[in-house]
Amino acid sequence: MNRVLRPSVVMLLSLACYGVLLGPFCAYMKQKPVEEKLGYVPSATLLRYLATDQKEFVAASLVMKTVMYYGGIAEKQQTNVVVAPPDLPAMSRLLHGAVKLDPYNMDAYYFAQSFLTWDAKQYKLANNLMDYGMKYRTWDWYLPFFAGFNSAYFLKDYSAAARYYQKAGELSGSDLSRLLAGRYLQESGQTGLAIAYLTVMEKGETNEAMKRNYHIRLTAFREVHRIEVARDRFKEAKGIVPTTVEQLILGGFLVPPPVDPYGGTFYLEPDGKVATTSKFAFAGVKNEKRQHTGE
Amino acid sequence: MLNIMAISLKGIFRDRIFQGIMGLAVLFLFIPSAASLSMRQVTELSITLSLSLISFIMLLLAVFLGATSIWKDIERRYTYSILSLPLSRTAYLLGRFLGIALFMLLTALFLGGVAMLAIKVASVLYPPARPVLWIAVLASILYGTLKYILLVAVSMLLATVSTSFFLPVFGTICTYLAGSITQQVYDYLHTPAAVKAISPIMKQAALFFYYLLPNLSAFDLKVNAIYALPLNASGLLMTALYFIVYTSVLLAAGAILLGRREMK
After folding, report:
1. Domain extents for chain A?
2. What ipTM was predicted for this assembly?
3. CA-nearest residue of chain B to A140?
4. What gap in Å lies between CA A208 and CA A224, rounded to an integer?
């Protein structure tokens, strides 16, 4: 009897202890510092030696880890939960390590393009990464498409943009890239280009958190486009440049009033350019609120 | 020799190793759903996960089956009764090796079939940008198997001189780790940075190990399978020849050492 009873008692006690420990343990894991959650990644050179014949698997794990981490934060931000902003340099390090291990990994390029540009504002770094990827993924039109967009929209380097879009057009066999290049080379329709780019990105996205991210950004840019159209109509009708968005609403040029999905407020800059207090990011609104409350 | 091979194969099945592998193969069922977490390369990720899982299982088999078969026979004194039969020590070693190699081929066939099913499901659910190059997937599984059969030969060579379980197991793991990176070290040694940083003696020592240790990176065709990159036919032929020659050298050395070993 003892042979069964004693181990059973020990097991029940252990299970009870496990139940008690589980709560604090999970809480500890949840609040672990970002560096610990994303983990320290040794230099890519060392990783290549350590990964032996599992380089592609290790690279995919690094990318997945970064996506999960960012997805968790993005989901909280979208539901208005206050969280620390993502550690973008650490994410960049991880993805750069991943492409050193597996230079063909598309997820790494795609995700890096997403956050290095809109969030981290590291446009040149993003394009360097795209250039690196193009050496390997010679069939992929997405990489020159991304690089073309970055060159045109962020870096204002129109000749480079035309070059990239030309390449993307050749690879994809579609005229979309050439069309975008042409539009941007005229230095007009920046918002239109962003909408076209984001529409392509949203359409091909399978990750739910990322798709929502693109959708929100696309909605914001569509609102900007509406304001721009209203601004131009106002100027045409009245012969003067409007100074506020309210002028457009009151004049009946902008119905319904624009809504920034990031929670900010649209306004017109002195040169007539449409901007928002959110800076197209949830973090932008929080920073603004902090400035207002004097934190 | 064929009898020993058959006995070895039966022994492995009797030890229920294949049932264990079938249990692990359940993991393949989860691969398409795990790969769906990828943003742009679901099928590619499912190939990566499938090939990595096969590789991991085959590594465990190579290390433990290769390292334990001869050592176990000597430890349990089965060799006395086996070698009292009209059978040379070389035939005994080759029989054991071929039994394990055949088991590994059967395992690769089974796991490869399940993996290809998982990849097919993923590719139907999430069509890849480039169609799956099935020949490259097959080649990757086949060459991966050859690599681990070569490792079995390494572990059996170590087992012929070892008096304990540790040398064959840890020696094989070290050979696997070193053999996987020798090509990278060799490539590094030929860069301008290494010419300045590495002393000539160190370089010579590294080159010695490069030629001595098996070059396992040649057998790694995962990147071709995952991203549908074309295979190099002459490279594949060269690697197959390398496998035959290197394995023959290892087995011949093992036969010599086992022949000279005192078993009293």
Report:
1. 38-122
2. 0.79
3. B129
4. 24
